Every structure is written in structure tokens, then in C-alpha cells.
Amino acid sequence: MKSRLLEQIRADLRSQLDRLSRAAMEAHAAATDPGSKAEGKYDTRSLEASYLAAGQARQVDDLVESVRIFETLVLPNFEMEDEIDSGALVKVDLNGETACFLLVPASGGSVISHEDMEITLLTPASGLYQKLLGMKVGQSLAAPRLRITEVS
Question: Taking residues 101-123, what's their average pLDDT?
Fold first, then answer.
């Protein structure tokens, strides 16, 4: 299952990269277009377009790095009695509902729909990632209130 999940994450990231790259090129074109030159001292269209282009270029760079990381990423399999570590797919009971988290090195906060599950990617920068490390099935957290039901 994890290999299919990884393939889906890679495909989603590539798709996001394609869309964002096109948007960044369009923003760059708008920022450098002679038609966007300021017509007065209060006309900030070109300045705003250049800020947008710069921000999108940074997002493209971040996404390129995420794609690179996931291209070589291998997710280990965990047994139910194993401690949670990087690469674990963790199912929890969160206020009576099932939630799934995948502990990965990049693209934190992304949500992947996979086999009728919504899986949230957590990175080491996430407080929840840090709280889950070392825990086992059956253990609970107080904040957020959750109980670990499965690790794979």
C-alpha cells in the first residue's frame, strides 16, 4: 500500500509543480510586460506583479525540492508493536473520527486522498510529528486528544 501511496504523492506533487510553474511564468510575464509599466506614481501594478512572480518562484523552488525528495524516498514498513518513526503511516482516533498521518521529510500539511482515506503529511517541523515519534499503538495524547489505533 505504501508504494502506491508514494506514487500518488509523487504524481500529485508533479501536477502541482506543473500548475505552479505555469502560473509563475505567467506572473513573470505580467511583471515584465511593457503594458504593466506604471502610468502614475500611485500605479503599483508592475510592483505587485513582481512580488507575485517572486513569491511563486520561491514556491516552485520549494516544490522542486519536495519532488526531488519524494523521488528517492522509501517508506519502511512498521509492525503494530513498533514505535512510530519517520515513514510511518499512523491511524488515530481523533475525537471519535479516524484520521491518518504520514510522517515524511517534505510537503507537510498536504492532504492526499488515497483508497478512501484522507492522509495528512506531517514533517519534523510539525509539533504533532514530534509528539507522535516513539509512541505505539494504544497510546494517547492529551493535546490534541487522540489515540493511536494503527501503525504501518
Answer: 94
